[in-house]
User: Fold this.
Amino acid sequence: MEKLDWLAANRDLWNSRVKGHMNSDFYAQEAFEKGACSLKQPELALLGDVRGKEILHLQCHFGQDTLSLQRRGAQCTGLDFSNEAIEAARVLNAKLGLGAEFVCEEVYKAAEAVMGKPFDAVFTSYGTLGWLPDVGRWAEQVAACLKPGGELVYVDFHPFLWTLNSSGSEFAFDYFNREAIVETSDQSYASTEQKQAVEVGWNHPVSEIQQALIDSGLQLEKVQEFDYSPYNCLANLVEEEPGVYRWSQHGNRFPMLLAVRARKR
Assistant:
């Protein structure tokens, strides 16, 4: 599939999701506006104290995580290719008076979109690399947006997870698949309020992600795997303890999250 095809299809998909997501129980917008933090423990632990840091948040959707970092004392810029999401993020930012910035652009043009400004940290999480065909280009953009000594904090669902079907009952995809995965859906992980749309994704093995970061000049500092999801975002997950979701038929026998911190030399 040509670039313009996948990019346009996925932009339309994410534009169609914004309103439903903002109104969903999943995103708990009312609680967020009252001060709740949308960030989860794996990324909070890797990020540490963000006070005074300039942070670029890639694929920020409508900005809850960006604004959570802003509330914790960082100066944040959120970037997303969905114009509907960025408009919603700007409205939310203004409503809460938080002073973050939001830029509408695709990830592969991130450095250009922020006009070459270097950041102390680049952050991205949960449902990010699977929407991109080329991890090497992503890693190059991350490196280009970091100051020397700056860090990437990446937390996402583990690539192994995407070998299973949506209910986790059987293998559906090849872990080493290099082809685009094209599906049609009329619902998302957070809401059923969306039109039927095409989505285009890719699965990237852990080794591919790590090698792309190394090739871009980043030094891996920490690589973690977690045996749970912090979100109830897949069919038939069971909350075994607060914020810990697993498929009961599998328990903790395989990884569900991958977390990486890497630093620019």
